[in-house]
């Protein structure tokens, strides 16, 4: 197993490098870089993309290397901006310098926020940890027992009406469910049972320990529910189908014929095999909720997390934030994949990754 883990860890290096190379190459062809953003603000345009939409008269002249939108600004000022942001160097040199810094976990400083990328990510992390951790935990705690019960009672009225509810939940987008929760329970039109902004109240520091815990859960109830709905539906059906496949196999019939209690057969034999496919979806589920699926939820509930940070950085062309978070999140995703393989072995010791290849 040690050799397999070592191979996977070594594979992280070219995979991560490939991700960064592709994204860095693509970003070279995207108009409206940070220098154009600053020029647009200085000239009062507000947004560099307005000039692109107007016919491209403000874009960079690739032949002369000058910014046509900067004709009213001194050329020395433009060159100073290029040196400050590092755009006076060739793309390959910029990429190599960036990767050398990232290897040492030096992600630089945001172009527009005057704060290091690490400090900025740590500042936004509590919101994403809240949404990702609690949504994933609730989805697994509810979906696995429900999916097992649906498999055991397949075709019963319980299975039918729960399947209907699950399909409805799966069909409702997370942001639409979030709006429904706001309208019903956050003072939209009916009840004002939950707050609509932030993770904690303004007087959180003055509350007792129990009060802080209750206040925290009071604030996260609605956004976590909105984040959980689609993952909950998918995971329940996945668990049910996985258990149904195992229940119909010969070894289960043999165990029942020997007189073993159904509960022991289910949790002593079936559970170990059926849970492998469920666990295989954990990295995608966690990473998706943690990083990708929280932008709209964060916006609706006025939460300032990594979803909004990534979106705002992409729009503003804040490259240190974009590439720093991309590098970090890709690395986390690859490591979580390795941990998933280790979980396979923990659940079913018969699995031997060492023999592969």
UniProtKB/TrEMBL annotation:
Topology with respect to the bilayer: Multi-pass membrane protein
Write out the entry's keywords from A to Z: Cell inner membrane, Cell membrane, Membrane, Transmembrane, Transmembrane helix, Transport
Q: Name one GO cellular component term.
A: plasma membrane
Pfam families, from UniProt?
A: BPD_transp_1 (PF00528)
This chain belongs to the protein called ABC peptide transporter, inner membrane subunit
User: Where does this chain mainly localize?
Assistant: membrane
Q: Which organism is it from?
A: Oceanicola granulosus (strain ATCC BAA-861 / DSM 15982 / KCTC 12143 / HTCC2516)
Annotated membrane-spanning segments are 9-30, 127-148, 160-186, 216-239, 274-301, 321-347
Q: Where is the ABC transmembrane type-1 domain?
A: 125-344
Q: Where in the cell is it found?
A: Cell inner membrane; Cell membrane
For biological process, the GO terms are: microcin transport; transmembrane transport
> Record keywords: Transmembrane included?
yes
